[in-house]
Amino acid sequence: MAELTLTEQPDLQDCVVIAAWAGWPDAAESATRAVRELIRQLHAVKFGEIDHEQFYVFTEHRPTVSNGPRGSRVLTWPSNELYYYRAPVGSGARNILLIIGEEPDLRWGAYTGYLSSVAKANGAKLLITVGALLDSVPHTRPPRVMGTTTADDIGGTLDPPLSSISYPKPNYEGPSGITSVMMDTFAKHDIPAVSIWGHAPHYLQVTYNPTITMAILRELQLFVQVDIDYTSLEEQAKEFDKNLVKALEGQKDLGSYVSKLEERFDTEEEARGRPEPRELLMELEAFLRSERTPELEDSQDVSDEEEPRT
């Protein structure tokens, strides 16, 4: 596999794979920044990369040029890097294989095949794809992070299990990105997947939103059980909010629009907090069962026995 270069074989034997891509699935750089923050804080070790030459149309994914030291010129190509984190024994944390890159233009099957082969060789138990999208959500409310899964019981796929996590099956239909192809490829290797998406306010023209990045990280932390220091991100988020208030001052039309988004957001969150009809029915049946006393059950049994036969 000349297009995949590995400098070592981590041999994790039990890991969670976390992957994010710059480009279409990375609104306000929220997803890739979250994964890079994990890499930085965990001192994850780089052990592989995928060659860019066969996977990009460079008139679409142009390399960038910058000034280096002493007047040199530096050309940077699209990159796809692999890192690993080996959790200390007894820490309760999980081994992690991290993938950070740019959504390729070509040969998605081959690309995801390389990544799944590495994951399988390291005993991957779960794939988590991380993305961010622009949505009609207000910046004045807690950031929304949504998750879906291909597994029937995602919490039970890991050891120890994560009973606190419950995601629905995906129901989106339409044009897709590398995340869906990645999940499909891993499914062929019997590796279940989770897809986590941060929702960024679409009306904010910003290159980076630290609030969404922090929310994504908190969601990822539930799965990998590692310690994350949020101090720097919290400071960035405060500065981001302060600058945002200044930028939006006097924009009455935008203020009215945000108020409408707030109303809709609050209504949606209230509805999400209500049990589904099926859950209500199950709760009612459980309650009725618990209310049946032994005397009532005995009397029901007697009445059944004494019912005349025809």
Class, according to the CATH hierarchy? Alpha Beta
- Share of helix, binned: 25-40%
Characterize the overall form: globular
Return the domain count: 1
Which residues form runs of ≥5 with pLDDT under 50?
Answer: 295-310
Number of strands: 10
Question: Which oligomerization state do the chains in this entry correspond to?
Answer: single chain
CA-atom Rg in angstroms: 25 Å
The fraction of residues assigned to DSSP E strands is: 15-25%
CATH superfamily: PAC-like subunit
Number of helices: 8
Structural class of the helices, strands and pairings?
alpha/beta
Strand order of the biggest β-sheet: 1-3-6-7-2-8-10-9
Overall mean pLDDT stands at 86
Largest sheet: 8 strands, mixed
The second-level CATH architecture is 3-Layer(aba) Sandwich
Sequence-ordered SSE layout with sheet pairings:
Blueprint: E1 4-6, E2 15-22, H1 30-42, E3 45-50, E4 64-67, E5 73-76, E6 80-85, E7 95-102, H2 108-121, E8 124-135, E9 144-149, H3 178-187, E10 193-201, H4 210-224, H5 231-248, H6 252-273, H7 277-291, H8 294-306
Parallel strand pairs: 2-7, 2-8, 8-10
Antiparallel strand pairs: 1-3, 3-6, 4-5, 6-7, 9-10
Helix pairs in contact: 1-4, 2-3, 4-5
Summary of the model, kept short:
The chain is an alpha/beta fold and 310 residues long. Helices cover 39% and strands 21% of the residues.
Give a description of the structure.
- This protein has 8 helices and 10 strands.
- Helix content is 39%, strand content 21%.
- The protein has 310 residues and is α/β, with parallel strands linked by helices.
- The chain has one domain: 3-Layer(aba) Sandwich (Rossmann fold), CATH 3.40.50.
- Strand 4 (64-67) and strand 5 form a beta hairpin.
- The chain has an 8-stranded mixed sheet with strand order 1-3-6-7-2-8-10-9, sandwiched between helices. It has a two-stranded antiparallel ribbon with strand order 4-5.
- Helix 1 packs across helix 4 (210-224).
- It is globular and about 55 Å long.
- The N and C termini lie far apart (77 Å).
